[in-house]
Design a protein that fits this description.
Structural class: alpha/beta
Largest sheet: 3 strands, parallel
Distance between the termini: 36 Å
């Protein structure tokens, strides 16, 4: 599908790329992706739709969209996944959180109450996999499906969360 869309866009006539993006990545990735596409295809027109992950997959499978941007890889025989970038995570808490005044230790981190961002709906994330490798766990008290929501909740609570560093910079939370 990416090759087909690229061939269509390479034609001298004006073309429209139908791009579908998960809500959790849209604030950061849409502007970046469109800028890169315009450099290569100056006559390009983009139509972007921000959707939930299951709708994103269906849009691609139904050929309603040419290209999808999502956080997690999509394992489907008719979809090709291309790793676009790797992002680091940052531990986020409100500025006056009791743990913000000292260096955060692993023991203090694991003992705190956490908010998990799970776009896929899984009850664990990459942080939990890393902690499990160390024989540790954390106490997740709330799960949400969007980074933006997580940032707002954490800024107004005693919860900790892990957010992609790029998200912090794009929202001014850094």
């Amino acid at each position: 599908k990416v090759r087909d869309a690229s061939r269509e866009l390479a034609q001298p006539s004006q073309a429209t790329l139908r791009l579908v993006c998960s809500a959790s990545l849209a604030p950061y990735m849409v502007s970046r992706t469109v800028a890169q596409l315009y450099e290569r295809f100056p006559r390009l027109q983009c139509r972007v739709q921000v959707v939930a992950p299951d709708i994103l997959n269906q849009q691609l499978l139904d050929r309603a969209s040419h290209l999808g941007i999502a956080l997690a890889p999509h394992d489907h025989p008719n979809l090709e996944t291309v790793k676009g970038y790797q992002c680091g995570l940052a531990c986020v808490m409100r500025r006056d959180h009791p743990l913000a005044s000292d260096e955060l230790t692993l023991d203090a981190y694991c003992a705190a109450h956490h908010l998990l961002v799970s776009v896929s709906g899984r009850p664990f994330g990459h942080v939990d996999e890393g902690l499990a490798a160390l024989g540790r766990t954390r106490h997740i008290v709330l799960t949400v499906n969007q980074f933006f929501t997580a940032g707002i909740v954490v800024a107004n609570s005693d919860l900790l969360t892990a957010l992609p560093r790029h998200f912090l910079a794009s929202t001014g939370m850094a």
